[in-house]
Design brief:
It is a single chain. This protein is α/β, with parallel strands linked by helices. The protein contains 17 helices and 13 strands. The chain has a six-stranded mixed sheet with strand order 4-5-13-10-11-12, with helices on both faces. Strands 8-7-6-9 form a four-stranded parallel sheet. It starts with 10 loop residues before the first helix and ends in a 7-residue tail after the last helix.
Length: 501
């Protein structure tokens, strides 16, 4: 759409101009650092960082209703830099020029309402936000678009060169990192570390296909993360895990999109999200806070973080009701079908603690909750969702299991509307479905296959073995007609098709 057709009151704001103000701030000692450095932890105290905006209050000079109008009209633009997560440029990366922004189709993923039968089964109205429909088939593309755009900006300013980007991953981060790095090749090369035999075949194929250096490491994700952290302190590499504060900024776009989808009305809304490395829940809370402070939304939605009993350090931390007695203790993970969330020592835990406290304070009461679910409920919930028209991954199943648990605990009421995060595409985790249907999920997962849920293909053969067609053996007209009638009759019987036309 041409700018000439836009309303006069928003024309000056439609195409954002880069400005200064963003900086790193340590969550430990509060020291600030320039964003023109590659930093992931504080050089003074080794604590994680957040990117803050010294000029954030200038955003409040534009009325909230005007911001809503700006974002709604930006939908019509054909400028690639503003088509993805940077539709919300002023709230994510106002320091980055549009020409440095990387857009591969990420963001603005579909929000799909559950069908009437499924809503009745669960007991309230809810939606899935299908983040598996991002370019690399997971929500990680949001943060990666932000992180890679920040690196591209540094490259464009001749502040860095010969970049080697590195990350540890349970699968999705590696796919996103390798994809975005390959788009910027040869300016950036990527390397990913994966826990050996703890990533699905589909996930492993993605960074390999994008040309990344892929290293499989004995142990679990937390072990890979320690190696990556060591490399980032000893060598000049770009860390692309959620320790990278730019990743958190990009993932805030999830909040902005949800708010826009529901026409900026967050009353009686509940956001359900798996926790994993805790970056996503931190970003979602922070995003809603920013929109609330800018008067774009007038209330903060309820947020529920979900963890499997096989990887639940955040849930365990908040079991202690007395804030002064809480002590974070990493856990040793056990096998989980929600592999992307199988993290025992989330790097963003300090962010969760600080942002949750701020979120509840602004909301005027407890508005962020944590629930624990079983592996059995995760798998059963994924199958339930996908048998009712969704494409939820196992983490999406974890969210539905979490919603059911929250209902049981009266954290959520049936008068509220929930938005569940399907963090990746169901196809990425189809191995677990296949094992479930074959009743072959290893005992460590503590999942039993329900015969009512098992679905396997049925091979239908004709009674006469001489009329079986193949690519090499094409049947004559009479034999082929006999084959059709034989197979059709058997299928009709299986389907109980008793009434002929």
């Amino acid at each position: 759409m041409m700018l000439d057709f836009f309303p006069e009151d928003i024309k000056p704001y439609i195409i954002p101009k880069p400005r200064s103000g963003q900086h790193y701030k340590c969550l430990g000692c509060s020291v600030e650092y320039s964003i023109e450095k590659l930093l992931y932890v504080c050089p003074e105290c080794n604590q994680v960082l957040l990117i803050q905006d010294k000029k954030a209050k200038t955003l409040q000079k534009i009325p909230g209703k005007t911001w809503q109008k700006i974002f709604d009209f930006r939908k019509m633009l054909k400028i690639p830099a503003l088509k993805g997560i940077y539709r919300y440029h002023e709230f994510i990366g106002p320091s980055i020029p549009l020409e440095s922004i990387i857009y591969l189709g990420e963001g603005h993923t579909p929000v799909i309402e559950a069908g009437e039968s499924l809503k009745e089964t669960i007991g309230l109205s809810f939606f899935y936000k299908n983040d598996g429909q991002n370019p690399s088939a997971s929500f990680k593309d949001r943060g990666m678009a932000s992180a890679m755009s920040s690196i591209k900006d540094l490259i464009d300013k001749n502040l860095v060169s010969d970049v080697i980007a590195i990350c540890a991953s349970t699968g999705d981060t590696s796919a996103a990192a390798a994809l975005y790095a390959s788009y910027l090749g040869p300016l950036i090369k990527s390397a990913v570390l994966l826990p050996h035999k703890k990533v699905t075949a589909q996930q492993l194929s993605q960074p390999l296909g994008s040309g990344a250096h892929v290293f499989e490491i004995p142990g679990v994700f937390d072990d890979c993360m320690k190696i990556v952290e060591h490399l980032s302190t000893q060598y000049s590499v770009v860390l692309l895990n959620s320790k990278n504060a730019w990743r958190i900024l990009g993932q805030e776009s999830y909040s902005y999109e949800v708010a826009q989808y529901f026409d900026w009305d967050m009353k009686d809304k509940v956001i359900v999200v798996p926790i994993g490395n805790a970056g996503n829940i931190s970003a979602i809370m922070n995003g809603f806070i920013k929109f609330y402070e800018a008067d774009i939304i007038d209330c903060l939605p309820k947020i529920i973080g979900v963890q499997s009993e096989h990887a639940d350090p955040v849930y365990q931390y908040y079991l202690e009701p007395d804030e002064t007695k809480r002590k974070f203790v990493p856990v040793d993970t056990k096998p989980s079908v929600a592999q992307a969330a199988m993290i025992g020592n989330p790097v963003s835990m300090p962010r969760v603690i600080q942002i949750r406290k701020e979120y509840n304070a602004i909301a005027g009461g407890r508005q962020v909750f944590f629930v624990q679910v079983t592996e059995q409920s995760i798998m059963d919930s994924q199958l339930l969702a996908n048998r009712n028209g969704h494409i939820a991954c196992t983490q999406g199943g974890e969210c539905l299991a979490g919603l059911i648990e929250a209902l049981k605990k009266n954290i959520v009421t049936n008068n509220e509307t929930a938005i569940l995060d399907a963090t990746a595409h169901a196809m990425k985790f189809s191995d677990f479905q296949d094992l479930y249907f074959k009743s072959q999920i290893p005992k460590d997962y503590k999942i039993d296959s329900d015969l009512n849920n098992i679905n396997q293909p049925s091979l239908i053969l004709p009674d006469d073995p001489t009329i079986i067609p193949s690519q090499k053996n094409r049947l004559g007209e009479k034999n082929f007609q006999n084959f059709i009638e034989d197979i059709s009759g058997k299928i009709a019987k299986r389907l109980d098709l008793t009434t002929p036309l």
